[in-house]
Amino acid sequence: MASGKSRSGLDKFGRPLVVVTGLGVVTSLGAGKADNWAKLTGGQSGIRAISRFPTDGLKTRIAGTIDFLTPQPSTAGLCESFADLVAEEAIAEAGIGTPGNFPGPLFLAVPPIEIEWTQRIEVGARSGSNDKTTYADLMRVATQFPDYHQRFMFGSVADHLAEKFGTQGSPISLSTACASGATAIHLGVEAIRRGETDAALCIGTDGSVNPEALVRFSLLSALSTNNDIPHAASRPFSKNRDGFVMAEGAGALVLESYDSAIARGARIIGVLEGCGEMTDAFHRTRSSPDGKPIIGCIASAIKDAGLTPDDIDYVNAHGTSTPENDKMEYLGVSTVLGERAKTVPISSNKSMIGHTLSAAGAVEAVFSLLTLNNQRIPPTINHDIPDPAIMMDVVPNKARDARVTHAISNSFGFGGQNVSLVMGLEPA
Amino acid sequence: MADAPREVWITGIGIVSCLGEGGETHWKKLMEGKPSGDVTLFAPFVVHPITPINFDTQIPKKGDQRQMDSWQRIGTYAAGLALDSAGVKGNLELLSHMDMIVAAGGGERDLNVDSTILTGTPHAANPAAFLNEKLMGDLRPTLFLAQLSNLLAGNISIVHGVTGSSRTFMGEESSGVDAVRIALSRIAAGQSDIALVGGAHNGERPDQLMLYEFAGNCLKDPYRPVWERDANGGGFALASLGAFLVIEAREHAEKRGAKPLARLTAVLSDRSNRKPGAATAALSRLWDKLKDKVKSGHAAVLSGASGAKAATAEERTFLEAQVLEAKGDLAVRATGSYLGHGMEPQFPMNVALAVVALGHGELFPPCDASGLEKPMSAPLDQVLVTGVGHWRGEGLALVERVG
């Protein structure tokens, strides 16, 4: 088969074609692709009452936590354990490199790493301060906690993954808020297209369900408060949607140039056909009311894939279940797809797994590729009261077999971050 | 890719630190050669506080300023200076395709709320419920937006209208190196025409001092220049600073009539595991890729050495054994003696200071009793910038005079 730069190894714009040869995923539904896919297409929810910490006095007491792995004392630790698991799965599937030597860079979407209350209170107690406790007291005893330095470095999760999996060069830790996972993939695609590398390991991970992170979103009125029936709380595109549900998870993709994958006889899972990005300067947490940045983002991803909107036959929605997001996403998708927006299926994985935040773009890219591979679309569950203002086929409540050749996955985040990825099956 | 890499120019810089704001102010202070640090604000720790800034000149809306915490204001301000310097401020058509990579930490705290919780927890009947109650009741809702790492980029988009693309890299010093590296790679490969790249840091935060003091990293009174700290246990003095660069393809700059401040020839980075000798070896491997481009006689090193004991000692070994060995007459300057250590934006800041020195065609005087920094009187054409993280990350850049 092809070796070196054959014509088949280039995309329509003459750039190295980027394919996917390994996938890994963990969510509140379970670990691994098989378990997740079975539950996702079975319409199961991973949302439950939070048991990790007491929720007394909190407005939101539910989340999509991952409770089946070894507990960790911090978000940094959780992010690392999730990322570790999905990287193992993806690299094993790809069969690339040798153990501890991945032949490309690491792009890691990870939430901001910070010392948390467990540790702050521990250090405070050690300070022995009897009266008012301030950071001056904590600083006096700080050197008694040497391990906390590297644990709470922003780069620590990526560093540990780079050491374990032997990725090349300086690992990139990145954040574009709730679009981070998609940006990690976007950076990997760009690096391969530049010809800098034949492979990239792109991971999104998030284990942010801790009291302060929950309170932060709660104070911005972003979270569902539908605590009584946790599995029914995330209701993307429904009239009675009332916010997103925080969740944990990780997704990993091994990206490769087509030529590299073919040369080593790897199975090609799908093609990362196009990436689009457009920043919104309207507001820190809200989209421009005219939807132009979202429209531009979706349109540019399709254009970057060398496709037209008519080629898209499935939309993996950002679909957070907040009143604002779902309305604006409908505006964006319906503007780009036009009349076809009424018939092209669009579904939100978040109805089942919640919003995995920094991981979402990567987790949902994995699910989009599984959708392509299985020719089956996971549903949007909890869709009992459709929003009459959103006239789309959201694949309500039940999975559906369908012919899908090109899927687009959207990710939108605070700070005006918008990223869309177009994925397809290997060209016949 | 098949096409030859495009030449990339630096056409704008925006810098602010304890030395003041703008290239000329920094140059004047560096030429004076009297570095110092503040030993009173967070005694016994040494810090380098930001110069007083009139934020209104770059962030006109008070509402925008209120939505930000210090690091974001410093960064948004420095980004505005860079856009002014490049002559693109307010050019919304151009800014709509300008790409942005920001190197950011984040996580500013409400110190009063933290203290209230720390003080009350030992006496609370139900500590977890007490924590929840205080967080729900006392945190101001918009604090989250001041903490989020990607909200410096978000604020730059809102205030200055940079909306092409927006990525935020995290990971202390190396995020600054990789931000510049990837922005350069994208432009060189034709994936981008013009980019705003840089970051900001607020070093006047006791919680940050605590974080680095976990590993005993923080310099304690008395202040000493960077290379002189090794014999006294090492350590860095946290800095508040902001630094942004506008870099663009030569053809893009020429088309809009922009003059080059300097050429950004190369940015390289790596990660070593910091076993003894590993950082020196990693830097040496990067240097091997660059050394043929560096000419003896008219080149200097702007070092980002922080003063952190092991990292600074390994960088010194690299400079002495590799760079000075190969290019004997290269002068070295550690800007951290003046600026302190600002983590994410430190490398973009040093690239910007390289631009300033190249603009003056000379180097500022040495400030080092340990003997590494030597005088240089020859005209300056090239600057090798180093960025060695206090814990992880090694980086080099080559910045050159154009013409």
3D architecture notes:
The complex is a heterodimer of chains A (428) and B (403). Chain A is an alpha/beta fold and 428 residues long. Chain A folds into 2 domains: 7-114 and 152-421, 3-Layer(aba) Sandwich (Peroxisomal Thiolase, Chain A, domain 1); 117-151, no CATH class. Chain A has helices at 33-41, 75-94, 117-127, 135-141, 147-151, 156-165, 180-193, 211-219, 258-263, 292-304, 323-337, 350-353, 360-374; strands at 18-27, 30-31, 48-49, 62-63, 106-109, 172-175, 199-206, 249-257, 270-277, 314-316, 346-347, 376-377, 400-401, 406-413, 417-424. In chain A, the strands form 3 sheets. In chain A, strands 1, 2, 5, 6, 7, 8, 9, 10, 11, 14 and 15 form an 11-stranded mixed beta sheet that branches. Chain A has a two-stranded antiparallel ribbon with strand order 3-4. A two-stranded antiparallel ribbon of chain A has the order 12-13. In chain A, α2 (75-94) runs parallel beside α6, α3 crosses α4 and α10 crosses α11 (323-337). Mean pLDDT of chain A is 96; it is low at 1-6. Chain B has 2 domains: 8-110 and 142-255, Thiolase/Chalcone synthase (Peroxisomal Thiolase, Chain A, domain 1, 3-Layer(aba) Sandwich); 265-400, Peroxisomal Thiolase, Chain A, domain 1, CATH 3.40.47.10. In chain B, strands 1, 2, 5, 6, 7, 9, 10, 11, 12, 13 and 14 form an 11-stranded mixed beta sheet that branches. In chain B, strands 3-4-8 form a 3-stranded mixed beta sheet, with no helix packed on it. In chain B, β11, α13 (309-326) and β12 (331-334) form a beta-alpha-beta unit.
What's the quick description here?
Chain A has helices at residues 33-41, 75-94, 117-127, 135-141, 147-151, 156-165, 180-193, 211-219, 258-263, 292-304, 323-337, 350-353, 360-374; strands at residues 18-27, 30-31, 48-49, 62-63, 106-109, 172-175, 199-206, 249-257, 270-277, 314-316, 346-347, 376-377, 400-401, 406-413, 417-424.
